[in-house]
């Protein structure tokens, strides 16, 4: 079977990783790379094999291609992806998929209308640790999931066009979406801007999936130390994913509480503590991005729906948009109408028009500052 002819747009920080993996993937041929910056293009050129470099998207679209991967800033995602889909190309787009839910929905519709694959690079879903976490949860190894607690903090790279939630939370939100397999009902976020008064650089985000599973995310560009940790705590066992521990990224703790007796007994706090073994299952090493590009090629070739398709990308964008709206209203809860409002947008418990500044996710317009509590 012939290889998928791919072009990459965006050769900044992340683009070269895509380039390297497309060059190394047996089912893809990297045929063109594009960056608006000649310096970035020149820096990436050495690793592009025989791919044609260009600083013009028009020129890239003139090259015979089957698909493109887009690794440009989020504010450019919609326009570039829409052009490529309309040109009949399959699209792999970086997270977050678009700058707002309206644009993300439009891309989903365009891809469906043109019968093209639209996949979002939610990289973690393709890594072996997250694969194992999903298996554990689905097999019931953890019992009933009580909570997910995620910390993703370090001295972060300040982004020009997004706040910390749009930069870091797509990873955690996509992992939880994938592992839980259900849609969020509502979201509340509390954030603070220090370096740039218009861009939150730390935030606490709470997502409500159902009455008994608490899900919290802490994202932060101001932490002196790097922490990448998620706890999935269940009634039977708890699992901790520590991404920075490359030899044992997952530990499963047979620790927790056992509830004795009937309801009356529990009211009297007949709780006993279980302190069993800790297990570190073997996790096969491997680069998640390699699996991303292979999965993309497979979906195009076999007409499959990607694990992280446009609809998942849209769900994540809806949560990011709602989290930012909530932060601007000092943690006011944004109701997602059980994940899917009829118009595809989240409804906030507020009467004001709620669109964020188009094309600049995570940056407020003037009226959004100092808004009263939503409830
Ligand atoms: N999946 C991941 O783990 C991961 C990690 C980092 C970044 N990302 C995502 O990748 C995307 C890019 O992030 P980055 O950190 O590489 O950004 P970056 O600013 O380092 O690079 C973006 C590049 O795009 C080029 N560019 C911008 N507009 C263009 C246009 N219209 N045509 C051609 N080139 C254009 C810029 O010149 C720049 O070289 C973002 O969406 C980001 O969230 C994903």
Could you give the order of strands across the largest sheet? 14-13-12-11-7-10-9-8-15-16
**Radius of gyration, taken over Cα atoms and rounded to an integer in Å:** 22 Å
* Overall tally of domains: 2
**Low-confidence spans:** 339-359, 366-375
Structural class: alpha/beta
- Please write the CATH class name of the largest domain: Alpha Beta
CATH fold name of the largest domain, please? Dihydrodipicolinate Reductase, domain 2
Strand content: 25-35%
Distance between the termini: 58 Å
- Our count of helices gives 10
What is the ordering of alpha helices and beta strands? EHEHEHEHEHEHEHEEEEEEHEHHEE
CATH superfamily of the largest domain: Dihydrodipicolinate Reductase, domain 2
Q: Describe the global form.
A: globular
Largest sheet: 10 strands, mixed
Nearest-integer average pLDDT: 89
Q: How many strand units?
A: 16
Distinct small molecules: nicotinamide-adenine-dinucleotide
